[in-house]
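Hi Prof. W.,

I finally got the Short chain dehydrogenase-like proteobacteria domain-containing protein prediction working! I wasn't sure whether to trim anything, so I left the full sequence exactly as given:
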Amino acid sequence: MAGGQIIPVQGLPQNPLGAAGKFLQDHLEAARAALAQGEDLVLTFPPAGHEHDEWRRALVQGLAREAAPHLRVNGVIGRDAGGDGSVAQIAGWLLAQPGITGQIVAVDGAQPVNPAQLVR
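And this is what came out:
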């Protein structure tokens, strides 16, 4: 494994069906290219309503199944999905955890995050 890559997913429509289609059109190829290079992957998403949960979960888990058993795919949802804050911190933490794949972690960005508190 060469390392890991964080791909910010931005510019999606508010409609869940439109957002899923736009992801497939604009971001799926980059995600698969990262995996083809032997890199674990974390997709970061901006917050959206609960109606986006299912397509995001299906996407992350589907890519995780494609990448298994050698690579991992996870997701992080938060306000600073393209920035350096808590989303980037959790994404980096997920890349360092060899036993976590197919998961989505949501952070609100309002408080500092201690990734160790995610696992009990």
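The chain has one domain: 3-118. Does that look reasonable to you?

Thanks,
D.
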